[in-house]
Specification:
Blueprint (H helix, E strand, L loop, with lengths): L1 H20 L4 H37 L3 E4 H13 L8 E7 L4 E4 L1 H18 L4 E9 L2 E8 L29 H11 L3 E6 L5 E8 L9 E3 L1
């Protein structure tokens, strides 16, 4: 599967290089150079996705688990991801309990999973709004990522969990982002759920077994 995913963009890259070498006017060269830049960027993203997919599979079998505060992890990743979208005017919110929301996990894999959920929301979802909420549900912590984009049609909810599934909307890539999240959640005895919240906003929920037995405290908007 990985070889097949790489073969197509590499072939396209070589073809564009050959076409560029045949151009004798500035307009034609500029057009092919722009296409080369686009293909090179796409190939870089694809290679990174393939490496990250292999990484989370490996760490699922080998990485020691640590006690992690889910709210701190969410705040860290939200700050990092939004730094790349500073020019956008978004309604941003993070709602979480004041006390730590403890889970057992591999911090490297969990960062990758949350980064992929947020990246998906920022690239294809959020038009004006991106909210994260962390809530206690029985013996689990639930992290919800809500945006006001079109969301994923219910018919595609199972498809996007699988690596190398067909992508909609003419998107490039190996479609590994949410399949990486699915693998990380499975390794952490949790799950990823899709749904619709208030105002028909799309919601991705990551559900983890809680590592603490205390009662959840009052929630606060941070």
């Amino acid at each position: 599967d990985a070889a097949h995913q790489l073969r197509t963009p590499v072939t396209a890259l070589l073809s564009q290089m050959e076409l560029l070498s045949m151009q004798h006017d500035d307009a034609g060269r500029a057009q092919h150079q722009a296409r080369l830049q686009e293909l090179t960027h796409h190939l870089g993203e694809l290679v990174n996705q393939l490496i990250n997919h292999a990484m989370v599979q490996h760490r699922a079998d080998s990485a020691p688990l640590e006690t992690i505060d889910l709210s701190s992890l969410a705040r860290e990743q939200m700050t990092d991801m939004l730094s790349h979208h500073a020019q956008r005017h978004l309604d941003i919110a993070l709602q979480a309990p004041e006390h730590p929301c403890l889970i057992l996990g591999d911090p490297v894999s969990l960062r990758e999973a949350l980064k992929n959920v947020l990246d998906n929301a920022l690239k294809y979802g959020a038009k004006n709004l991106l909210h994260i909420a962390i809530r206690r549900s029985d013996n689990h912590w639930e992290l919800e990522v809500e945006d006001d984009g079109p969301g994923i049609p219910e018919a595609g909810w199972e498809r996007v969990r699988k690596p190398f599934s067909a992508r909609g909307g003419g998107r490039l890539g190996a479609s590994l982002g949410l399949s990486i999240v699915e693998e990380v959640m499975r390794a952490h005895r949790g799950d990823m759920r899709f749904g619709w919240g208030a105002d028909q906003h799309f919601v991705v929920t990551l559900r983890f077994p809680a590592a603490d037995t205390g009662e959840p405290g009052p929630q606060a908007l941070n």
